[in-house]
């Protein structure tokens, strides 16, 4: 993790001259989570312009005072954390309150299962999706989150119409590494 944190800080420093960078996880001095970092920025809040929050001194990879993201460039988060699986579910609703109810049902901070960060986000066609970070995907699987979301969506008068993951599960990573090792061994045996 220390090596990953060094790499994240290096990437952040390289990007920082162009776009403000916020560090998280092991790359951040206090280990602040990505979710906590996002909550401190205006991006995931109703638009009030790009006012600079006073408590993000580590913007621009900790090397300069905070410069708020602009509407043109935005900002970048760089961090080092154990495997996170992004699991998103599209809802059959344009009702933001219903979508937030589903996100609340699966989010750890709101009483959901361990290791789930979740947001209700506007999606294509005026509908919403619930975007989740599964911080312990072997413990709280996409199937567990989907079952909770289905129940919460039904209570809110909507449904989950599709789901998708971004990235690989731990099992998929292990499988691909084993395949790569086998291919390397086969090349070495020739």
Structure summary, number of beta strands: 6
Q: What is the averaged pLDDT score? A: 84
What's the arrangement of strands in the largest beta sheet? 4-5-3-6
**Strand and helix order:** HEHEEHEEHEH
* Proportion in helices: 25-40%
> Can you summarize the main beta sheet?
4 strands, antiparallel
Query: What is the gyration radius calculated from CA atoms?
Result: 19 Å
Total of helices: 5
CATH topology of the largest domain: Alpha-Beta Plaits
CATH architecture of the largest domain: 2-Layer Sandwich
What would CATH call the class of the largest domain?
A: Alpha Beta
The class by helix and strand makeup works out as alpha+beta
Protein name: Formiminotransferase C-terminal subdomain domain-containing protein
Domain Formiminotransferase C-terminal subdomain: 82-181
GO molecular function: folic acid binding; transferase activity
How would you describe this protein?
With 190 residues, the protein is an alpha+beta fold. The protein has 2 domains: 2-80, no CATH class; 85-170, Formiminotransferase, C-terminal subdomain (Alpha-Beta Plaits, 2-Layer Sandwich), CATH 3.30.70. It is 34% helix and 20% strand. It contains 5 helices and 6 strands. The protein has helices at 2-15, 34-39, 96-106, 142-155, 170-189; strands at residues 21-25, 76-80, 85-91, 116-122, 128-134, 160-166. The strands form 2 sheets. Strands 4-5-3-6 form a 4-stranded antiparallel β-sheet. Strands 1-2 form a two-stranded parallel sheet. Helix 3 (96-106) crosses helix 4.
